Amino acid sequence: MELGIPDRVPVFCQLSVGHYFLYADPSPMDIWFRSEALADALVQMQQRYQFDGILVNIPGRDPEFEKHIDRVQRKDAERETWVWWKNGNYTRIPDDDCAHYFQSDGSRFFPTFEQVDPETLWYVEPWDLSGITYPYSWGFDPEPRPFEDFFPPFHDETIRLVKNKVGDATSVHSEIFSPFSQFLELLNYEYALMGLLDDPGKSHAILERLTLGATDLAKRQAAAGVDAILISSAFAGGGLISREDYATFVLPYEKQVISDVQSEFPNLKVYTHTCGAIGDRLDLMLATGTNGIDTLDPPPLGTVELEQAVEQLNGQAFIKGNLDPVHTFLYGDEEKVRQSVMHRLQVAKPRGGYILSSACSIAPAVRPELLETMSQIVLEHGCY
Known about the structure:
single chain, alpha/beta, TIM Barrel, four-stranded antiparallel β-sheet, 15% strand
């Protein structure tokens, strides 16, 4: 992350929640609902795969969440656990995928663009226990918290637990949703994109408010001791918005977050995760002031060849990713992994500033042996 030459190329993938559910010791329900269980799962998988970092990308949980439960139902045929809440709604927890919160009629709630008053917004957390609410409140609290004390005291608990478990031996990263990602999550994607077209003025007002909350959360995570913060801006690639819309609706707000956070924490690294087709906007991503770019999906998933990224980003931002998570890991084998890893080391190792990683998250069904193979190759061939 310092853009220099380390002793070895670091290796560190983001794992899907479903992968933790399948291969970590705590149960999926415990991982989803308990900060301590999630911290245990994160550290267990990091140690198994010899990763140099851990990404904490689910917020800490209310330690009193159980008082809201009406009943828990196991559905073996569906390989899911359902948690019914006292308010009549329920959460479905698959054995191998993210949990989702549903209304009693089976729908998921999203406010309409017309309903949203920008002045009521601060931050939107899609992975909160009760999903999306509006005006936004945490879990089953009946009222929103005041903006000056918006995040509940347990929100960064998982970060603190992980830091206590690994000390300084492992780089601990946290995640915030970019203003643009929050905007999409709040309204559901197609309606948010329509809002950009129908009323760009109101869209900008919403993004300005969500920028304040993202900055607030990032500073809180920095104070908790993280080594880097990932801005999850997954949907800002060419598959959803144009280069021009990126410059209009994404760039200025991510730039503001990074600037405001680093004005208070100047040594903190902040980097950007954007999926898919980003080969046409690497220069715009750099213009946000980001310290690094994550995923860099290669064809056919995305549009970034690693050689291109090295030439364009060298000396300006660190590079993390580019290993195809689908064709190399999900559908690949040990030889495919070996060839792919060795190619990335050959291209990106010489100049430094590279973290070897899957482009996007490791899918639930990826065999652990392939990740162990990846890390072993780096240990053998990644040293300077």
